[in-house]
Amino acid sequence: MAAMTGDAATVTRPPELTVVVVLTYLSAIASIVLGVLLILARYAVPESDGAARAVVTIAGAIVVLIGFMIVSVASGIARGDRKARVLATVLIGLAGLVSLISLVLNPDDLWTQLIGVLINGAVIVVMWTGRARRFFARTSA
Fold first, then answer.
1. Taking the mean position of all CA atoms in its chain, how far away is CA 86?
2. What distance in Å separates the CA atoms of residue 123 and residue 88, rounded to the nearest whole number?
3. For the chain, which residues make up each domain, given as ranges?
4. How far is residue 39's CA from residue 61's CA, in Å, rounded to a whole number?
5. Interatomic CA distance for residues 120 and 122, integer angstroms
6. Beta strands at 8-11 and 2-5: parallel, antiparallel or unpaired
7. Is the dihedral of CA 41, 28, 87, 115 positive or negative?
8. What pLDDT, on a 0 to 100 scale, did the predictor assign at position 64?
9. How far does Cα 76 stand from its chain's mean position?
10. What is the dihedral of CA 85, 132, 80, 67, to 10 degrees?
């Protein structure tokens, strides 16, 4: 997969890693949307106390922040940056955990959350196996 250009070898990104980058962006967008919905959910129950609203707002803000952090590491994944892969694994894992918690708290949203968990899991598995693993091994030290 290495093509020689002058003195340096360039490593071609495998197609499945390109799919992972796209899915990583989708995961980030889903996290941002979920976080915004959590923030807006504080207004769903008008009689709730201030502490409950603050907790929901803070949780939503954290989920939005995780989503933006996932966006920021997606380009690192595309370049083959090993640190970006580790950070993306942690962040996508956290997003998956939030989806699982949301699934437990709101079973009516089963399919949406389940699809999110499966996509997050697939992204992590593909980043750490096969040609993608070899791509990261041959790029940045």
1. 12
2. 9
3. 16-138
4. 7
5. 5
6. antiparallel
7. positive
8. 93
9. 13
10. -40
Residues 53/114, Cβ–Cβ less than 8 Å:
no
The torsion region of residue 130 among left (phi > 0), alpha (psi -120 to 50) and beta comes to left
Q: Backbone phi, then psi, for 49, in 5-degree steps?
A: -80, 170
Beta bridge partners of 33: none
Full-model pTM? 0.71
Residue 141 CA, chain-centre distance (Å), reads 23
Give, for all 141 residues of the chain, the pLDDT tens digit. Answer: 444 444 445 778 889 999 989 988 887 898 899 899 988 888 876 776 778 788 888 989 998 998 898 888 888 898 888 999 999 899 888 878 877 887 787 778 788 778 878 888 888 999 999 888 888 888 755
Q: Looking at the chain, how many residues does it have?
A: 141
Q: What distance in Å separates the CA atoms of residue 127 and residue 74, rounded to the nearest whole number?
A: 12
The burial of 87, by beta-carbon neighbours within 10 Å (0-12 exposed, 13-18 middle, 19 or more buried), is given as middle
